[in-house]
UniProtKB/TrEMBL annotation:
Keywords: Methyltransferase, Transferase. The keyword Transferase applies. Residues 45-124 form the Methyltransferase domain. It comes from the Bacteria. Gene3D superfamilies: Vaccinia Virus protein VP39. This is Class I SAM-dependent methyltransferase. Transmembrane segments: none annotated. CDD domains: AdoMet_MTases. InterPro entries: Methyltransf_25 (IPR041698), SAM-dependent_MTases_sf (IPR029063). It comes from Rhizobium daejeonense. Pfam families: Methyltransf_25. GO terms for biological process: methylation. GO terms for molecular function: methyltransferase activity. The keyword Transmembrane helix does not apply.
Length: 199
């Protein structure tokens, strides 16, 4: 079992700590506003790796979106159900996504980059299969190709990234056009963000 395979268990073991730390920070509002600003009120949005639902999914719900949140941690999904009962919250692994429906928006914020490079490549057809025509897709990656190990609650936490050129290629091959890409955005806690639209 590789380091990437430990991520699911790590987030479940430390779900409450993650929730405490995550809920205090909302650097992402400008990107959420940009993403949601392309969607009509009431649009269905898929949040992959939704965590405890705060603050990102909560912001989308406040804007009138119909959010379906997917996370591998049962504890984090329970928190979503308690706090945000208007959302549809499901315990699932994004790598096995098969919801038999499409969405006007798909978001994988600070979740997709925990997958191995090959698992990331395999996600693009899944994004496309769940994207309605003109759907928005937003995800975060690393700034360049490689693996980076962080830590959370004293345990190693895996991150990986493809090259920007390969992300652009995979997006194009799966029917998405890049709307915006910022590497290590200083206004967003250093996140590297991709925003694309299904054509």
């Amino acid at each position: 079992m590789g380091e990437a395979d430990h991520v699911v268990g790590l987030y479940e073991r430390h779900a409450r700590a993650f929730d405490r730390l995550r809920s205090k920070h909302f650097f992402e509002r400008s990107w959420i506003d940009r993403f949601a600003g392309q969607l009509a009120e009431g649009s269905p949005v898929l949040d992959l790796g939704c965590g405890s639902g705060e603050p990102l999914a909560a912001c989308l719900l406040e804007r009138g979106m119909k959010v379906t949140g997917i996370d591998s941690s049962p504890t984090l999904i329970d928190l979503c159900r308690e706090r945000l009962p208007q959302g549809d919250w499901q315990v699932a692994d994004m790598r096995e996504l098969s919801l038999a429906r499409t969405f006007d928006g798909i978001m994988a914020w600070h979740s997709f980059f925990h997958l191995t490079p090959d698992a990331q490549r395999a996600m693009f057809p899944l994004f496309a299969a769940h994207a309605a025509r003109r759907a928005m897709l937003m995800f975060t990656s690393g700034p360049s190709e490689g693996v980076a190990m962080g830590t959370f609650e004293g345990e190693p936490l895996y991150h990986a990234s493809l090259s920007p050129e390969e992300y652009r290629q995979l997006l194009g091959e799966n029917g998405f056009e890049v709307i915006a890409h910022v590497a290590e955005d200083p206004q967003c806690g250093g996140a590297t963000v991709w925003l694309a639209r299904k054509v």
